[in-house]
């Protein structure tokens, strides 16, 4: 394993942690359904210390699709300290992820991380909500495991286009109760998800809610959190270049009291407080231009 420590930083909570660039051996890289892949890598100790919500910058190999110049950001899907492995669950969408899907056991993948600020977990919470969509479930898998480890009960709402597109349910089924909702039968409509959350909250109230970057879910959870009285966090999938805070390509606007502040998602996030996310009409950043139709 080729290793090379590139930096040591302080995170938002004041804890110092190392970032390691290393070429990690591929243990397995298998398709999951039509468009998703699951890759497992033999990892260094530094990588095994990554927290739920943090991400790595992957130097995806060249393939017939092209040669990706920049690293690609990817959330950690699983960490197995017993066997010393980290895993990523990824959707093949372009040059980088196509190259990633060509790796086979025995190859190496150059990774840089762990990066960013992960999710907050309070062991005193009784019951929390996770709402995730499609490949966003990859980001939430380690969170489900950590919540279980901290004795916090979890209800997950996992949203997909179709039943055939269902992926990443295992951590939620193992560690909590799960509702799957689909575009094809209308159960993923924002009104249906709203009703479902209210029913679950009436049954056993939520202390906190987590979601990933769908702006319709973020808006819904912002409304529900103020009406029903729970806090929350969102993991944003902002487009990134360096992932290290140097290029400013990942800047978004955040609410700070009565003002709006521009911050870099790669260093201040990708996890942010729900209440800090600015409504699309108030911002000129990515959050305004992302896909309106998908939740
Ligand atoms: C913090 C973070 C964590 C992520 N975790 C995961 C994960 O666990 N699994 C996973 O499959 N993907 C994840 N992504 C998205 C992933 O980085 C992109 O899908 C990937 O960079 C696409 O690279 P590509 O070269 O294959 O596609 P490109 O050729 O670069 O783009 C192909 C398509 O993907 C879209 N795209 C590219 N980058 C992003 C992005 N950052 N967010 C949303 N859409 C994008 C483009 O708009 C385009 O439509 C994450 C992104 C971030 C910022
Ligand atoms: S990706 Fe370069 S500053 Fe965030």
Main traits of this protein?
295 residues, alpha+beta, Elongation Factor Tu (Ef-tu), domain 3, Rossmann fold, 2 domains, eight-stranded antiparallel beta sheet, six-stranded mixed beta sheet, 8 helices, 36% strand, binds flavin-adenine dinucleotide, binds FE2/S2 (inorganic) cluster, transport
Fold and architecture overview:
The protein has 295 residues and is of the alpha+beta class. The chain has two domains: 2-115, Beta Barrel (Elongation Factor Tu (Ef-tu), domain 3), CATH 2.40.30; 127-289, Rossmann fold (3-Layer(aba) Sandwich). It contains eight helices and 16 strands. The strands form three sheets. Strands 1, 2, 3, 4, 5, 6, 7 and 8 form an eight-stranded antiparallel sheet that branches. Helix 5 (190-203) packs parallel to helix 6. The protein is globular, with a radius of gyration of 18 Å. The structure holds flavin-adenine dinucleotide and FE2/S2 (inorganic) cluster (FES). FE2/S2 (inorganic) cluster binds at residues 240-243, 245-250, 264, 266.
Concise summary:
The chain has 8 helices and 16 strands. With 295 residues, it is an alpha+beta fold. It has 2 domains: 2-115, Elongation Factor Tu (Ef-tu), domain 3 (Beta Barrel), CATH 2.40.30.10; 127-289, Rossmann fold (3-Layer(aba) Sandwich), CATH 3.40.50.80.
